[in-house]
Write a structure and sequence with these properties.
Blueprint: E1 2-6, H1 10-21, E2 37-39, E3 45-49, H2 55-60, E4 66-70, H3 71-77, E5 82-100, E6 110-114, H4 117-127, E7 131-135, H5 142-145, E8 151-156, H6 160-164, E9 167-183, H7 184-189, H8 191-208
Parallel strand pairs: 1-3, 1-4, 6-7, 6-8
Antiparallel strand pairs: 2-3, 4-9, 5-8, 5-9
Bound molecules: adenosine monophosphate (AMP).
Adenosine monophosphate binds next to strand 5, strand 8 and helix 6.
C-alpha cells in the first residue's frame, strides 16, 4: 500500500490531474466527505487529507510514503530528511515582503509578522537587517494596519488580498510551487511502486508542456 499525504483545497485540486493520470481517483470527494483517509480507484494507493503544514511531518515519520507540499512549507519545516524528487509546478505563487502602501523604506530594527518564522529570520539576517519576527497563524495583512509589525512575509498570488488591505508587495523572497516529497525509507522499501508513480507524474508534467 502507498499512502500519499495531501492538503485539501488548491493543492489537492491542482494535484488531481497528476493523480488521475496515474489511475488514482479518490472514491469519496474530500470537499464533501469528512474522511481523513480516502481510498482510491487504485487498491494499492490511499490518500491522507491533512493540513498543508503537516504534510512534511507525516512523510518524515513514514506515516505517509509520499506527500505534496508547497516549497514554502518544506523550507519552513526544514525538509532535509525528505527526498524532493519533483517540482509539480502547481499552486504557484511568490513569497514576498509587504508593507503599508505609504510606509517609508525599512530602516533600523523592524518587526515582521509572518507564519514563516525561519524563512523570515534567514532572509533578514542575510540582508543585515535586525528583525524581530512575530509568529502569526493567519490574517498577516492585519499586522501593519494595527501597528503590530512594520512588514509582513506572506504568499502573494494576484496581490488582491494585499491591495484590499492597503498593503503592497515589496521584495520577492522566492518563487513557490508544490513539490512531491518522499519518505527516505519508503524510497528503499517500496522503490518499484514509488519510481513507477514518479515516472507517471513526470510524464503528466511533460504533457502539460
Ligand atoms: P492573492 O490575493 O491572490 O495575492 O492571494 C493571497 C492570499 O492567498 C494570501 O492569504 C496567501 O496566503 C494565499 N495564497 C496565495 N497563493 C497561495 C498558495 N499557492 N498556497 C497557499 N496559499 C496561497
Amino acid at each position: 500500500m502507498l499512502t500519499i499525504a495531501v492538503s485539501k483545497g488548491r493543492i489537492f485540486e491542482e494535484a488531481l490531474p497528476f493523480l488521475e493520470a496515474a489511475g488514482i481517483t479518490p472514491i469519496d470527494d474530500p470537499k464533501t466527505c469528512r474522511k481523513l483517509i480516502l481510498r482510491t480507484t487504485r487498491e494499492d494507493v490511499q490518500l491522507v487529507i491533512i493540513r498543508a503544514t503537516d504534510v512534511p511531518t507525516f512523510v518524515e515519520y513514514g506515516a505517509a510514503d509520499l506527500g505534496i507540499a508547497g516549497k514554502d512549507v518544506l523550507l519552513e519545516h526544514g525538509a532535509e530528511s525528505l527526498y524532493e524528487p519533483l517540482d509539480l509546478g502547481i499552486a504557484r505563487c511568490r513569497l514576498m515582503t509587504a508593507e503599508h502602501k505609504d510606509a517609508p523604506p525599512l530602516s533600523g530594527r523592524i518587526r515582521v509578522a509572518t507564519k514563516y518564522v525561519k524563512i523570515a529570520q534567514r532572509y533578514f539576517a542575510k540582508k543585515g537587517i535586525q528583525a524581530e519576527i512575530i509568529k502569526l497563524y493567519g490574517s498577516m495583512e492585519l499586522a501593519p494596519l494595527v501597528g503590530l509589525a512594520d512588514c509582513i512575509v506572506d504568499l502573494v498570488e494576484t496581490g488582491n488580498t494585499l491591495k484590499a488591505n492597503n498593503l503592497e508587495p515589496r521584495e520577492l523572497i522566492m518563487h513557490i510551487s508544490s513539490r512531491l516529497v518522499v519518505n527516505k525509507a519508503a524510497m528503499k522499501m517500496k522503490n518499484r511502486a514509488i519510481v513507477d508513480l514518479l515516472n507517471q507524474f513526470e510524464a503528466t508534467l511533460a504533457n502539460k508542456g
